[in-house]
Design goal:
- The chain contains 12 helices and 12 strands.
- The chain has 314 residues and is α/β, with parallel strands linked by helices.
- Strands 2-1-3-4-5-11 form a 6-stranded parallel β-sheet, with helices on both faces. Strands 7-6-8-9-10-12 form a 6-stranded mixed β-sheet, with helices on both faces.
- Helix 4 links the parallel strand 3 and strand 4.
- Helix 3 runs parallel beside helix 4, helix 6 packs parallel to helix 7 and helix 8 crosses helix 9.
- The chain starts with 8 loop residues before the first helix and ends in a 5-residue tail after the last helix.
Amino acid sequence: MKKFKLLTAAVLSMAIAGPLVSMSAIAERYVLVSHAPDSDSWWNTVKNGVALAGKQMDVEVEYRNPPTGDLADMARIIQQAAASNPDGIITTLADYDVLSEPIRNAVDQGINVIIMNSGSPEQAREVGALMFVGQPEYDAGFAAGQRAKGDGIKSFVCVNHAISNAVVSERCRGFAAGLGVELGNSMLDSGQDPAEIKNRVLAYLSSNPDTDAILTIGPTSADPTILALQENGLAGDIYFGTFDLGENIVKAIKSGVIQWGIDQQPFLQAYLPVVILANYDRYGVLPGNNINSGPGFVTKDGLALVEKYAGEYR
């Protein structure tokens, strides 16, 4: 693990004497690597979070991602980021088997790493990361399932646009457990193409007309599902919950098409690691535990600030 930075006596004496050395000359540099394809607008909030943290902490920040969401490509990006010798890397751990080795290599190189968004505290510890900042996915799904059970739901379909991301799939499994039912064939591999998602949702509901509820795992699957329900006339008549927020999701909550959205606060998932790494490098201070950024349920009754900042900070 890389030790935090110490200013030399010469630099300290100059700093005391006056602003002879600009802090930007010794600014730390951090790279955030996500698994998100360019087409996934949900990550704009993450980009806003890392950019604001960089500005406020006076550090250099970079956002990198595989354009198509290919995880092998992401592994190469982590390797490239490590080769550039940043002060820290913030990365998602969307697939442990594919990404754990390049992350461990970065840690072995002496680079501080924080896992954000995808992965788990246990996996973060296994790869040698400082901590995990994100939402415990199974627990979030379980809480959503218990909420739906209290609302009388007994069956559901989970529209999963990220079937290869095992951690995100825990949302569906947790939801089933919270309901007290087997997941079985209730997880729909929707793909990421909006038109295909809509068609697959329409086909599933047509073949399974007794489905009580729909769960989507983010805007990529939620937005086309909203269109599907508008097309088949079930908008507002079928129980609909989703993970994450976005402009269309907020509108659907407001109109009653979606009952609730689970906010994992992606802004904080990007913002906090930059602040934590900068303070660790400068002063050697570090939170003593992982940080849960979610879940939080957003309903029609609490939309004011969420609606104002949806897609930007929420």
